[in-house]
Amino acid sequence: MSEHGDKGHIVPYATLVIVWAALLTLTILTVAVSRIDLGILNIWAALGIACSKSVLVISFFMHMKYENRLFKLFLMIALITLATFIGFTFFDVMYR
Amino acid sequence: MNQTTSSPLQRGFWEATGGRRGIGAWIFSTDHKRIGLLYFYSTLLFFCVGALLGLALRLELFSPGADFFTPQQYNALFTLHGVVMIFLFIIPGIPAAFGNLVMPIQIGAEDVAFPRLNLLSWWLYAIGAILALTSLFTAGGAPDTGWTFYVPFSVRTTTNVSLATVAVFIIGFSGILTGLNFLVTIHRMRAPGMTWWRIPLFTWSLYATAWVQVLATPVLGITVLLIFAERIVGSGLFDPTRGGDPIMYQHLFWIYSHPAVYIMILPGMGVITDIIPVFARKPVFGYKAIAISSLAIAGAGSVVWAHHMTTSGMSDTAVLVFSLLTFLVAIPSAVKVFNWVATLYKGSISLDPPLLFALSFIFLFSIGGLTGLVLGAAATDVHVHDTYFVVGHFHFVMFGGTGFAYIAAMHYWLPKIYGRMYNRKAAVWGWALMTFGFIVLYMSMMIVGMEGMPRRYYDYLPKFTFWNQLSTIGSWILACGLIVIFVNIFRGLFRGKPAGDNPWGGASLEWQTSSPPPLENFDYEPEVTHGPYDFKRGCP
After folding, report:
1. What is the pLDDT of residue A3?
2. Beta strand B497-498 with B420-421: parallel, antiparallel or unpaired?
3. pLDDT of residue B17
4. From CA B314, how far away is CA B448, in angstroms rounded?
5. In chain A, fewer beta carbons within 10 Å around the N or the C end?
6. Distance (Å, rounded) from C-alpha B416 to C-alpha B105?
7. Which chain regions cross the lipid bilayer (chain A) (predicted)?
8. Chain B hits for A96, Cβ within 8 Å
């Protein structure tokens, strides 16, 4: 918790703008990829781009990059659980 | 601790009303014990409602043909029985009621980490319960979908599914907040010396449960919101003619609702694990193995959901994978059962009521667990899917497991909270009636299911009559047992003899404070120097 309150980390504007630009670029990429027929890879491409965007938002806008390990661990548990839920559903969707 | 001449209900936290009178001292209190009792009485009320609905169902099935209800009423009855029992009784029953009552004391804390959030959890539960009951009498009347709300029927039915799903959504938030509160409490609020390997195993089970509540319950919220969206705006998410996928609904529903089975059973296992060593006068066998098995059950149990969908039309690969994964859950479950039996081995056993209920739990849960493997194996599941065998199986696990653990917890911990003791002989009679009635009721269901009787049917072929009648007679015996148990325990808690601070000779922290406990649980900050089952050092 020490990273909060009196030792709060301030992200420079330049970093925020770069992250914002990266998010916009990835959004354009999402639309572009959806117009190319890659078969089943379309889903993985969309999920991959969405994950990258999430990492950027969580790391910089939500300051997780500057938090302590316990918070990062808890977040990873939640994200891995979500990925497992989605991933295991593909045992059905991909093989029907 | 000093025993004064005043009534136990005028001492300890009972007298600390926070300046409020009457019901206000309860519904606005942030004391974890008062919130625990609010949950206890709420869940007990809904258990009684659910039990009456179950008795009504069995009465209708006593003989073939129409007896007391119309088919539509029958559909509404079993839906209501399922929704009330699962969302309003079993899921919050042990973790929210006994978790709140006991867990902070077990780890030497004054309260939970977020007392106001704790109260909000109960309020959300109460609001959700009121909405669920309101759904019965408004719009199209009582939902008739079964507690699973499967599409496409739940989208098309004219009954009031919309309000019922909103109620489930709100109740889900209550569970998430309780889980979050318990996680933070167990991490941050332990007394000095209360290391991770000195935490009582009931609290360990709540810790594992809390993770499942926090991680899996949001999926339920999303799922019921999607039904709501389908019904209100017709989004077509589950409609194949519009590019949707009805099986995806089943995935979403069971991604929550199978882990929910572990939200229901893990705290029950924790209760049993705390009771057995006390009445065997022996340290628990394999403490670390039991603690880790709780986490393993929570983890493995979260990735087996599609075994409910073997006949749904999902891919054969998924059937194979989820069937295999299901078998993995049996391993940590068996670790617990073997460790309970090993704890009893060569113990100095005292057959008091809490242990009797715990022994019934082991017996009934083992039958429920092993019949679960019949359902987990895809080849056999195809034959018994949607038959009464499934109904018998999950009642063995949920009622024989969690239900018995809930009643064991009542007999074990309520004398601590109330400071008075019930009549032990009457409790033994209640236990005997309940266990016998239970076996007659649900074993008959499993047999008639193996013979091919489908579940959720209003009527049945005459060849199933004998087992159905036996099952209904079992429900009456079980109901008699429950009446004996409840009358005896509440008579004892309000009029019984003083229980003393440590009536069972327990070594964990809740037995080291007064009965009833004071407002902030201890008159001094406890310092823990031994494990929760070290009877030589922990029990003077």
Report:
1. 45
2. antiparallel
3. 80
4. 28
5. N
6. 11
7. 12-33, 39-61, 73-91
8. 314-315
**Residue that is written with structure tokens 């017996």 in the block:** B363
Instruction: Provide CB contacts within 8 A for B130, sequence distance 6+.
Output: none
> In this structure, which amino acid lies at residue B417?
I
pLDDT tens, residue by residue, B68-104: 999 989 998 999 999 899 999 999 999 999 999 999 9
Give the domain extent around B284: 27-109+261-538
Q: Residue B421 pairs with which residues in a beta bridge? A: B497
Provide CB contacts within 8 A for B449, sequence distance 6+: B384, B387, B388, B389, B390, B391, B392, B455
Contact B93, B161 (CB under 8 A): no
d(CA A72, nearest CA chain B) in Å: 15
Cβ contacts of B315 on chain A, cutoff 8 Å: 91-96
Quick check: is B214 in a domain? no
pLDDT score at A91: 93
pLDDT reading at B448 higher than 50? yes
Tokens of A34: 């959806």
B265: Cα separation from own chain's centroid: 6
Residue B540 has pLDDT above 70, yes or no: no
A43 has a pLDDT exceeding 90? no
- Is B317–A88 a contact, with Cβ atoms under 8 angstroms apart? no
Whether residues A84 and B302 touch (CB distance < 8 A) is answered with yes
Residues, chain B? 540
Per-residue CA distances from B252 to B99, B223, B230, B245 (Å): 28, 6, 14, 11
B177 is a domain residue: no
The residue written with tokens 């019984």 in the block is B496
Cβ <8 Å between A84 and B303: yes
Residue B187 lies in a domain: no
Q: Which residues sit opposite B378 in a β-bridge? A: none
Q: How many separate domains does chain B show?
A: 1
Segment holding A91, helix H or strand E:
helix A69-93
Give pTM, 2 decimals.
Answer: 0.91
Please report the pLDDT score of residue B3 as a whole number.
Answer: 45
For residue B287, the domain's CATH number is 1.20.210.10
Of B251, B302, B306, the CB nearest to A81: B302
Identify the pLDDT of residue B9: 67
Coil, helix or strand for B525?
coil
- In a mutagenesis test of the B interface, which of A79, A90, A91 is the best target, namely the one with the most B β-carbons within 10 Å? A91
Q: What is the mean pLDDT of chain B?
A: 92
Token pair 């015996």: residue: B477
Q: Chain B: give the shortest CA distance to residue A90, in Å.
A: 8
- Measured in whole angstroms, the distance separating CA B88 from the mean position of its chain's CA atoms is 9
Contacts of B306 in chain A (CB under 8 A): 88, 91-92
- Report yes or no on B93 lying in a domain: yes
Whether the per-residue pLDDT at B241 is higher than 80: the answer is yes
Answer yes or no: do A95 and B251 touch at CB < 8 A. no
The C-alpha atoms of residue A93 and residue B324 are separated, in whole angstroms, by 18
Closest approach of chain B CAs to the CA of A21, in angstroms?
Answer: 31
Residue in chain B nearest A75 by alpha carbon? B215
User: Quick one: tokens of B19?
Assistant: 């300046």
**Tokens 């006994």, located at residue:** B98
Secondary structure (3-state) at B493: helix
SS3 B235: coil
